[in-house]
Design goal:
By secondary structure, the chain is α/β, with parallel strands linked by helices. The protein contains 3 helices and 6 strands, in the order H-E-H-H-E-E-E-E-E. Strands 1, 2, 3, 4, 5 and 6 form a 6-stranded mixed sheet that branches.
């Protein structure tokens, strides 16, 4: 899968928010605005459920919230950049998160 198929410039932004919850909502809005995903409520529920299981702060200032849900036929990504950082986004190396890469894939798109 080519990155350019999952991500376009309309889903890359400088984040306006600075809390984990609001940043995630901001990226969900970017993804749903494109019209490629129907049912914003299901996406919100899935992303926040995944975050409750374990934070997606992977280290080096990067977080990768991700889910696989029904109705998605190719992976969709959004990227948010925070100059100040998101202090309440827990990371495995305790560094403040500054880049958030959200990935939404189809239920059976494990490989992609």
């Amino acid at each position: 899968m080519e990155l350019s198929k999952a991500l376009n410039k309309n889903r890359i932004c400088i984040l306006k928010e600075n809390t984990k919850e609001k940043v995630i909502l901001e990226l969900i809005e970017l993804i749903t605005r494109s019209g490629e995903i129907k049912g914003i409520a299901g996406l919100k529920e899935s992303i926040f459920y995944r975050e409750k299981l374990m934070s997606t702060g992977i280290g080096l200032g990067i977080a990768v919230p991700h889910v696989r849900i029904e109705g998605v036929y190719q992976p969709i990504m959004a990227i948010g950049i925070s100059h100040e950082g998101i202090p309440d986004y827990v990371s495995i190396d305790d560094q403040i998160i500054k880049i958030v890469v959200m990935i939404v894939a189809g239920k059976n798109q494990h490989r992609e």
